[in-house]
Write a structure and sequence with these properties.
CATH superfamily: Peptide deformylase
Strand content: 15-25%
Order of helices and strands: HEEEEEEEHHH
CATH class: Alpha Beta
Mean pLDDT: 95
Number of helices: 4
Shape: globular
CATH topology: Peptide Deformylase
Largest sheet: 5 strands, antiparallel
Structural class: alpha+beta
Helix content: 25-40%
Low-confidence stretches: none
Number of domains: 1
Bound molecules: nickel (II) ion
Length: 180
């Protein structure tokens, strides 16, 4: 498996509208495994394929404290939604920035697994937040889009200053050496 580079806001590739997955093959399985590995390594509780510069509708989430409850949702669609909640969100593509965003408290989604089987999933609370956040990525949206223009400008300038629009590259070798 391999760690994938994560695009950093305001990289224009984060604005791409993702396409439905049609081929449920070995390459997809490997890609999803790499996505999950990258999410856990970062570490994060959610990752959308858009963030690793892949144009397919795929998200990974794991909001469990132990990091042992991976959810993979391919071609996810929200088919029910109600209530509201506000949570302080962050994003692997906008490191160090956190802000409150209002989302639905409960959602029901319909998605496919890596073999193409369709299933429904109910989500409340943080899991619902996370799934809505990741589906936004597939639609070219990021959580700072919900903030005021002034705050968005500040975040954009900060990210360009700190990251220069370079994608985040996780160097597995360097990490392995530093942990010796
Ligand atoms: Ni995100």
């Amino acid at each position: 498996m391999a760690l994938l580079d994560i695009l950093v806001y305001p990289d224009p590739r984060l604005r791409r509208l993702a396409d439905n997955v049609v081929d449920f093959n070995d390459e997809l399985q490997l890609f999803v495994a790499n996505m999950a590995e990258t999410m856990y390594f970062a570490p994060g509780i959610g990752l959308a394929a858009t963030q690793v510069n892949d144009p397919r509708r795929i998200i990974c989430v794991d909001v469990s404290p132990e990091g042992n409850d991976l959810g993979v949702y391919i071609n996810p669609e929200i088919i029910e939604k109600d209530g509201s909640q506000t949570y302080e969100e962050g994003c692997l593509s906008i490191p160090g920035v956190f802000a409150e965003v209002e989302r639905f408290e409960h959602i029901k989604i319909r998605a496919q697994d890596t073999t193409g089987n369709s299933f429904d999933k109910e989500a409340h609370g943080l899991l619902a937040v996370c799934i809505q956040h990741e589906i936004d990525h597939l639609d070219g949206k990021v959580f700072v889009d919900y903030l005021s223009r002034l705050k968005q400008d500040r975040v954009r300038k900060r990210m360009i200053k700190e990251h220069g629009m370079e994608a985040i590259h996780y160097d597995e070798k360097a990490v392995a050496e530093s942990s010796l």
